[in-house]
């Protein structure tokens, strides 16, 4: 279960070290047993065929190597846990920030509006754009023509009859269409490539054992899907390279209004 607080920071560290602690405890118990058996064997060995000292040394050396290996793994796990904690604490700075992320579902507040970005293959002549609620019902739709390249879509939160919709999660659906109104397919009979991104302000951060999620209302946005961040504190844009692309140009803009006014003067 996701936890939107700092109380979860540090839990990963305990979980990460559990395996190493268990291995170290088991090794210690095995080593004590080994020494007991070895001592008993030395006391009761055949005088005419005593235990060779090199075998005794080899066994002690093997135990020492295993112990060193477990300790090295424990140190590496501690470093990884520290990095994870730092990443979690850094994620908290995203609260109040405006983000862009790969995804099609955004959160609508009462009386608010939603912003999306999308991209579609240039050969598509027509596009049916739909907004669906959490039950999959289409609450808004419109047909567009000659759409190509990166596009922005702002939905005012009202259906086609002008009635404001309830607060909740709404999904943008793109349906590429041929000129005759049928579903568009390319020369190879494949559907057109589309990409959708959402824009919103982070309300809170969920820190789980597996990942970090930024919350837009009740919509959880995986940290890895971010493509652009505008921090609320200093109003600087930060482009996030996650290996996922919506086809948008989210270059970093570090300039400020004061700088532009100074240059103009």
Quick recap:
This protein is α+β, with helices and mostly antiparallel strands. The protein contains three helices and 13 strands; from the N terminus they run H-H-E-E-E-E-E-E-E-E-E-E-E-E-E-H. Strand 12 and strand 13 form a beta hairpin.
How would you describe this structure to a colleague?
The chain is α+β, with helices and mostly antiparallel strands and 265 residues long. The chain has 2 domains: 6-94; 98-239, Immunoglobulin-like, CATH 2.60.40.4070. 30% of the residues lie in helices and 29% in strands. It is built from 3 helices and 13 strands, in the order ααβββββββββββββα. It has helices at residues 11-43, 53-91, 257-264, and strands spanning 98-102, 105-108, 114-120, 126-132, 138-145, 149-155, 168-177, 194-201, 204-207, 212-216, 219-222, 226-230, 237-239. A 6-stranded antiparallel β-sheet has the order 6-3-8-1-12-13, with no helix packed on it. The protein has a 4-stranded antiparallel β-sheet with strand order 2-7-4-5, with no helix packed on it. It has a 3-stranded antiparallel β-sheet with strand order 9-10-11, with no helix packed on it. Helix 1 runs antiparallel to helix 2. The longest helix has 39 residues, at 53-91. It starts with 10 loop residues before the first helix and ends with a helix. The model is unreliable at 1-16, 241-245 and 247-265 (pLDDT under 50).
